[in-house]
Each structure stands twice: as structure tokens, then as C-alpha cells.
Amino acid sequence: MHEHGTESIKPGEKIVIIGNPNVGKSVIFGLLTGRYATVSNYPGTTVTLTTGSYNMGGVDTQVMDTPGVNTLIPMSEDEVVTRDILLKESIRLVVQVADAKNLSRGLLITIQLAEMGLPFVLVLNMWDESNSRGIHIDVEKLAAAIGTMIIPAIAVEKKGLKELREVLSQRIYPSISINYGGVVEGGIRELETLLPEVNISKRAISLMLLAGDESLKPWLKDHVSMSVIRRIESIRREIQDKFYEPLGYVINQIRLKRCERILADVVSRYHTGRSTITARLGNWAMHPVWGIPVLLIVLFLMYEFVGVIGAQTLVDLLENTLFGSYINPYMTTMVSTFIPDSFFKDLLVGEYGIITMALTYSIAIILPIVGTFFIAFGILEDSGYLPRLAIMVHKIFKSMGLHGKAVLPMVLGLGCDTMATLTARIMETRKERIIVTLLLALGVPCSAQLGVILGMLGGVSFTVTLLWASIIMFVLFFVGYMASKVIKGEESDFVFDIPPLRVPVLSNILFKTLSRIKWYLNEAVPLFIVGTLILFTLDKLGVLKVIEVFASPIVVNFLGLPQKATDAFLIGFLRRDYGAAGLYALATAGQLNPNQILVSLVTITLFVPCVANLLVMIKERGPKTAIAIVAFIFPFAFLVGGVLNFALNMLGVRL
Questions:
Q1: DSSP assignments along 373-390, one per residue
Q2: Which residues are bridge partners to 60 per DSSP?
Q3: Average pLDDT for residues 261-272, to the nearest whole number?
């Protein structure tokens, strides 16, 4: 039924933003909520949600920016969370954001929202891009076909925002409906009698169950008896037996045909006669040949911005000037004056002190690096380059049981492996997330570590640099390939929307960067404090010295390195770049020859992740998986380093 209303706002009601990936949901969310946003995990999952508030009629109403989805019959954890929000939350209005130039994808979600009986409006974003491609959408016909408000928008220019704000106080129920044929409709009617009353219609839940939505089982167990669940399964089997194709496929095909009829009636095309520079550059960026020089230019610019400006200039300013010359000396004096007890003095400002190590590392060293990387990554996100990079490298990652999207956390890992481990959530299956986490922990150096490594390699020769890079790339490919054979689980299909290349909007980049920095300060900094406390405790108990005694023979006899290198590997567990810095100090002191430099850098690159990354791995993948990854990486790194040392000596290679 097509209804409009302006009922008073009830406590706890939410505005939920939904849409496909890369349609501008986050931009619209930012425009509605301003800078006051909270990033957190949806309860019981690893999926991140952004929430904010919007003042509507004098009442602060919560706005939720949900993960991008392609269907509301979930195939990934992101889609489960989005569906569960619609199922369980008190919803005032759904704002569906669709890509105007790719309306067919959005309409599938539109139909599912309509079947749920939820009030919603449809925002056709990127209206200018659809026009530039010669796509004309008859908004009035589309509104009549669906039965809801249609708002053309260019979110990055704030066009359509005024119209959206005007309808947020309304409750607009769509009028579109689909008949799935006598057999399916009969099954829907039977299931509806068995289901409880919830936020969305029983018809929508019935269709999900008939389509074989396994993710609904926990919800069913909480709301109906086991006898009812068995009856539901029986009805589904009875209906399925009457079709040759899976019921999910049958239902989806009927929806797609309805989408095609709507599109045929409301969309027309005309020739623009234009081929823009950005369109050509977009094609080059994902070309198997021309995409390589584009990638090299992007990586060079990122390294200059993150690796030089962030990891060198800003880190030097904060670590050596702000903390080194002012904060740490002042705090050491204050603590020495007011806390004479040596134990608590060491706890705060000692070698493993909360101030001198945890805060210095997390604020003075890591924050400038991740901050500049957040800016660079935001530019890559909003420009539309990352999807093209994913397509270009898809075949390489496919051999490792992954797909092109895996390049996104890998690129982010060059900024910070801890942050990149969190972004492994974009992979659809558990198997893919574990492989990405393993590869990040194993051999993707963060920008701080990479800066130290490249500085060390720069003092040797290009041959050593090439050997180091080749060995690391080979190891990553080999381990990824073997992991794809050993780790059980499914591999997902590679479905990726390709937005046009566009010039990022500065305000959007700043909003994203500030939100991510807020996350870092709230989530990651405490992990550094925990890690420092662990090292402090081990040091006070004398365990660190014991580890050094036991590790020294491996470092000296197997890796062929001086005994002092043991300290570098120990401190490398806290932060791998500090481990690399310890090796750098040995090299500049003339205690490492070129062969030893290569062996030590390969080993430290493949070494166990830092404490912060380990704690995030435990949080994201679970303790068992995280411990298993570390248990593999630790001996494997030394094995590769030892084999390399043996090979160089056996072949008589002197670099």
C-alpha cells in the first residue's frame, strides 16, 4: 500500500542508509550527521558500523550507515548485518542510495525493501555522471512504478540534500508488489501463519526462507519452537521439489525480470559524443599492461606522502622534537620528583614505560604514519582507483584462493598492518579473511618498517634490494597458494562495481580521515599500552633475558648474524620497524656485511607481527586462529632466513 505520513518521532527510531557498495552512502551519511560520528562493531560481529545523529523536529534521531550490499538475502557477513538491522532495529525511515548510472543493481534492493514493508525513499546519486554517459531516467515514471519518493542527487556537491532532509520526517511506504506464481505464493501463505510479528513483513521473511537463507536460522531458534522450524523446512522442501532450479534462483529471476520491465519503461539513452580524459585514464588504470605504470606512479606518490612526509618528516617532528625534547624529559622529571619508587617510575617512564614507550610509539611514531595514510587511502577510495587496481591484480590473487579485492588490505598494510587486518573484513568468506590476515602478518611491511628497510638497503646495492623484494614476493605468493589448499572453506565470486574516476572532494576526505583517526585513538592506542605492559612484566620477571639466551644460538649459528641482532628481533615483536631500526644501527656501525643485511632484512620482514597487530588478530580472527598464524610465522621466518644464509654460503655468493 502506498502511504505517506508524518507521524511523530518515537524514541529509539532510526534512519538507516542502505545501498550497493560505492554508491555514496557514506557521503550522504556525513552530510546528514556532520562530524559527530561513532564507529563501532555491530554486536556479535566484526562488521564496522558508523552511526551519528540528525536533528529532526527538535529530536536527535540516530542515523546508521550500513555496509554496502548487493542483496538482502545475505551472502556475506556484511549483508547479514544489514539484513539484521532491518529485521531487529526500530526504523523510522530507510534511505536507499543507488547509483543513477547503474540503476539495475539498486532496483533489486528496492524490490526487497518494498517486500519488507519498510518506509523508504530512493536517492539516485551520481546524477551528473549518468547524464554525462547519456542515461536519462524519467523520475516521475520511476516514482509511480515503485510508489515512493525519488530524489536525484549529486552528493559530493550537496545537490539533492535539501530535498532529502524535507522527506526524512515522512513515512513513505512503497506500493510495488510482485506475484511469484501460484506454487511459491502458496508456500508464502503457509509460512506466514508460522512466523511471529516483527519489524519487517512476514512475506519478506517467507521469501528469504524459501530462497534458502541459512543466516536466518539463529533468529528462527530465538522466535519459534523447533517443531515450527521443522515444519518450515518441510514446506520449503515441498515447494523446492516442484522446481528444477533452486528456489533462490527462481525468486531472483522473477525479481530481475520485474527490474528489467521497470528499466525499459523509465530509462533511455542518448549519445553524448564525449570521451573524457578521466574515462580514458580509468580504462588505462585497469589495463593488464598500461595499468602497471599507473600503479607504479600511485605507489611512488603514496610512498612520498606516507613514507617520506609521514614516516620521516612528521615522525621526526613529533618523536624527536615534541616527545624527545619536551614531553618525555618533562614527564621523567615530574615522575622522578613525585614518585621515588623505582618500580612505578619504570612503569611510567622506564625503558618499557607507558609514557616513554607506549604513548611515544602510538602518538609520535604511528599516528603521523597512519594519519597520512588515511588521507592517501581516502583519496584513492573517493577517486575510484582502488576497484581498478583490484581488477588488474585479480588473476594473481585468484591463484592464492583470493580475488582482486584482497589488494585493498594489502595496500593498506603498507601503511599499518594493524589497520589493514581490520579491513580484511571486506573479504566475503572466513577462509579469505584468514589468508589475508596471514599474508599481512607474514610479509607486508608497514610504512615505518619499510622506510627503515629501504634506508638500510640504500646503503648497500640495488642487487640486494632486488633480491630482498623478490624473496618477499615469492614467499607471499607461495604461502598464499599453500594456505588456499590447506585452509578449508569456500571462495567467493569476484563481483565489483567500477565507479568512474573522479576528483575527490576535500571535505569528504577530511571527514573520513578524522573519523578513522578517532577510531585509532580509541581502539589502537590502548593496544600499545597493553603490549608495553606485557613487555614491562616480562622484563621485570627476567623472562626477556631468558628469551635472549635461548634465541642467541639460532640468530648466530643458523642465521649467521652477530649476537647483538638478537635484541633487534626481541624488540621487533613490539614494533617490527624498531626491530629493523636495531639492525640498521648494527649495519651503520659496520657489524653487518651485505650478505648479513639481506638475511636479517628478509627475516625481520617475515617476522611475527607487532603486539598491536597480534591483539587485533585475536580480536578479529579469534585466539585459536591468531595463535596458529603466529606459531607458523615465527619458525617460518627463521627458516627462510636460515635457508637463505645457507644458500649464500654454499654458492659462495658475496653481495
A1: HHHHHHHHHHHTHHHHHH
A2: 55
A3: 78
SS3 5: coil
Q: Residue 389: its pLDDT value, please?
A: 73
Query: In what helix (H) or strand (E) does residue 137 lie, and over which residues does it extend?
Result: strand 135-137
DSSP symbols for 410-430: HHHHTT-HHHHHHHGGGSSSH
Burial of 510 (0-12, 13-18, 19+ CB in 10 A): middle
What DSSP string runs through 525-588?
Answer: HHHHHHHHHHHHHHHHHTHHHHHHHHHHHIIIIIS---TTHHHHHHHHTT-HHHHHHHHHHHHH
At 620, the amino acid letter reads E
**What DSSP assignment string belongs to 9-58?**
PPTT-EEEEEE-TTSSHHHHHHHHHTT-EEEEEPTTSS-EEEEEEEEETT
Cell of 606: 617475515
Residues 287-315, buried b or exposed e (16+ Cβ, 10 A)?
A: eeeebeebbeebeeebbebbbebbbbebb
Domains of the chain, each with CATH number or no CATH: 14-167 (3.40.50.300), 275-655 (no CATH)
How far is the C-alpha of 51 from the C-alpha of 40, rounded, in Å? Answer: 8
Print burial letters for 421-442: b (CB count within 10 Å at least 16), e (below 16). bbbbbbbbbbbbbbbbbbbbbb
Res 198 pLDDT > 70? yes
3-state SS class at 244: coil
**Three-state helix/strand/coil letters over 158-173:** CECHHHHHHHCCCCCE
Query: What Rg value do the Cα atoms of the chain yield, rounded?
Result: 28
pLDDT in tens, 455-501: 677 667 777 878 888 898 888 888 888 888 888 866 655 555 566 66
Q: What is the C-alpha separation between 620 and 367, in angstroms, rounded?
A: 21
> CA-to-CA distance for 275 and 272, rounded, in angstroms?
9
2 confidence band (pLDDT: 50, 70, 90): very low
> Under a CB-based contact definition with an 8 Å cutoff, are residues 575 and 447 in contact?
no
**Stated length of the chain:** 655
Question: Angle 623-650/462-486 helices, nearest 10 degrees?
Answer: 140
User: Using one digit for the tens of pLDDT, what is the confidence trace for 353-404?
Assistant: 888 877 887 788 777 877 887 788 778 777 777 777 777 777 777 777 777 7
Distance between CA atoms of residues 430 and 351, nearest Å: 39
Sequence-distant (6+) residues with CB within 8 A of 636 are 442, 479, 606
pTM of the complete model: 0.59
